[in-house]
Amino acid sequence: MAHRIQGGEGWGYAHLRFKKKEVINICDCKRLGFVGDVEFDECTGCITHLIIPGPGCLCGIFGREKEYVIPFCDVKQIGDDIILVEVKTLKDAEKACNSG
After folding, report:
1. What pTM was computed for the model?
2. Which of 48, 40, 52 is nearest to 9 (CA)?
3. Which domain holds residue 8?
4. Confidence class of residue 79 from pLDDT cuts 50, 70 and 90?
5. How many folded domains does the chain comprise?
6. Which of 55, 95, 50, 51 is nearest to 76 (CA)?
């Protein structure tokens, strides 16, 4: 499944539309958080990944240690308020925030 950004929509609009949705992993029913960013392929206009900020370290005071980078092919359903994803091993989706 790929979400193509429509001509008049622009990536900014798509980003805002996804940012208001909570992401839930259907494999373990874990709430991952809200979409913080999206990555897309500039050539095709398709969204490739959803970026979800991970839990904050020390109650979020000093920022975040990691984020979840979810391939868009793992998105199973997009609703009005929620995005359901199927990530069998959450460790595979984790990325340290200070890594490139």
Report:
1. 0.74
2. 40
3. 3-96
4. very high
5. 1
6. 50
